Amino acid sequence: MHATDPTVFVDDDFDDIDLGDGVTVASASDENDPTDAACAVVTDPDAAVPDDVPTILYTDAPPEAVERPDRFDAYVSRGDRSALESQVRWVLASTADRDASEVATARNDAEWDRLKRLYEGTTDLIAAETVEELYERAIGLTEHILEFDNTSFFLHDGDSFYVVANNDDMAGMGPIPTDMGLLGETHRAKRSFLVDDVRDHPEADPNDPAYRSAVSVPAGDDGVFQAISNEVGAYDETDLTLAELLVSYVSETRSRIESEAALRQSREQIERLHRGATELAAATSLDELFEQTVEITDDILEFDISYVGVVEDGYIVPAAISSDAPADGAERVPLDDGGIAAEVFLSGNTDITDDVRDHPEARPVKRMYRAVLSVPIGDLGVFQATTFTPGAFGERDAELTELLMAHVAVTAERIRAESRLREERDRSTALFEHVSDAAVAYDVEAGALTVRDVNRAFQSAFGYDADDVVGSDLLGRIVPPEPDPNPVPEPGADETIPELLVAAGESYRGEVRRRTEGGVREFILNVVPLSPGEERGSGYAIYTDITERKTRESELERQNERLEEFANIVSHDLRNPLSVARGNLDLARETGDETRFDTAERALEQMEELIDDLLSLARRGQLVDETERVDLPAVARQAWATTDTADAELATCQSVVVDADEDRLAELLANLFRNAVEHAGPDVCVEVGGVDGGFYVEDDGPGIDAERRDEVFEPGETTGDDGIGYGLAIVESIAEAHGWSAIVTSGTAGGARFEFRA
């Protein structure tokens, strides 16, 4: 029966399939028995399948959801009639002239094995997420299941073909002319070819003379699949049918991937448009709003040229245009003769013009402009998008643009309203703005301070932009944290932050410390309530920066302390050696003893050394010049060479680098070297090396008693017979000028060790 009148059994009523003449389609509704059919098509994945009848599953269920897929000989996604017809024709061709027992036996043949493996492989094919991945997986199926040697998928783009996938690393090859041989004929005719020998085929024009046989199958409207062999007659009808089945799977899956991608792109475009519209709401001026509008339409809606024109005094005036537009891409046009833009603004209706050359009212500024989309922006103006190709805009473009322009119109009205309010506020706050000191207008409610406005002097003094602080709680930004996490207030002290006093209508004047971008500074704060004596919670805070004055006062205080210290030194420390010198000179005159001159000379040398140290402290204090990265051992050797160190020895490490003023560092080291020689003897060994975060200087002398280590940096403090006690004071002064801490401890050999860390 199958050889003369094949029957296809279907278990559901669906659209008629075209299987050609001489094929009977029987359905379950006609009470037909599927066991008598040459082929069965079932739509239910759970349906009972006759063992001896080739069965195709035609269903909406995805392949991965089908249990025991090996029960079926093929899978076709419901709705793909072309693939279903190809599968059925393949089964009928394979079962012709066979009875049911022959069919059961044939299903174990290699051809049926390839068909089943192709079906099973389509699960992997359909799971592809990108078109590129789809083609690569399809090439894999041609190698491992269809057992083709050289296969390619070609894509038609423009007037040429390009290889998009190949099993021999030829992907990307092209362009290949459209009219080239069998490839071009397959694309033009939209039909498959099975060629036993390309040398005998009138259309074949192979790239490689070694090519002999081929299978060429159209893949949708813009592609072709080909399998090439160097052998004559390498392919048969079974290979062609399998190739057609594979291509149908690829085409269907590609359509699904591209549809999903288009849907995803559309969803992403709408989401981006929504975000762009949200950003528009933050615009603070019409110029900014219009510039952002054309940026959004160019970037998100992907228009070639976007333009916003506003209506002023009977004209449409350019307000913003795409950055890629020609320099004279827009012009001022009158409303009574302004072409499409004027017509759209006056009517309030969107217009899509496929080609301005065919529009009687069009007045294009540039002849290159072709398609135009025009959308009104409320009573403000009109938006236009232009392309250089006709028919570029559709209804979706218009809908998305109308949605965006609605946001633009609302934002523009908000900006204009704010502008009017701003003008009124500017007139009333001119005095506030011109206050020379930093000023803040603010409200207090429930203990929170909210800034209404700040003047330019505030932005300059504090370093905070008005946009950053207006509407925020200023106190959290400018009130520095307490050094003690649990401060204990002095008895009777007012713990209230002065700025909050306006809540009770109270004023305040006093010194405060407030945090700026540049650090904590000193201010005189004047708090002025808007309504004195009333609990309205509004007022002004005026900050007068006195940081420099306080610094000068502190410096003056330190200078006075040094002057007092110098006076004590002059009156005491210089007087003693001066008295010694005078006394010995008098004795020398009276007795003629010349040794008295030596004693007087040593006293004068001590006075000279003392004066040099005093000048060092007085002239340079804690100042250092610009610091740089210097080599500590090199500076130490330089200082050692210029210091009277008798028979002492210096040991340095190989490499320690510190950030310092080289001259002052040398002065610090020289004082430490002299101190070591004075207290540890002329043959002392001094070592200079690095520690974590700094460096050290130590000697192998007797060291410094622990109870005296806090006193050694005091001016005039000494235990030596010849020392004057100012060398270590200079050392500490230089260290503090660099921002280093200086501590005294014991060295490895028990001597004095001085450590300096940043």
TrEMBL record:
CDD domains for this protein: HisKA
Pfam families: GAF_2, HATPase_c, HisKA, PAS
Catalytic activity annotation: ATP + protein L-histidine = ADP + protein N-phospho-L-histidine
PROSITE patterns: HIS_KIN, PAS
Primary enzyme class: transferase
GO molecular function: phosphorelay sensor kinase activity
Segments forming domain Histidine kinase: 569-758
Key words, A-Z: Kinase, Phosphoprotein, Transferase, Two-component regulatory system
Start and end residues of each PAS domain: 424-482
PANTHER family: HISTIDINE KINASE 1, TWO-COMPONENT HISTIDINE KINASE
Protein name: histidine kinase
Protein's organism: Haloferax marisrubri
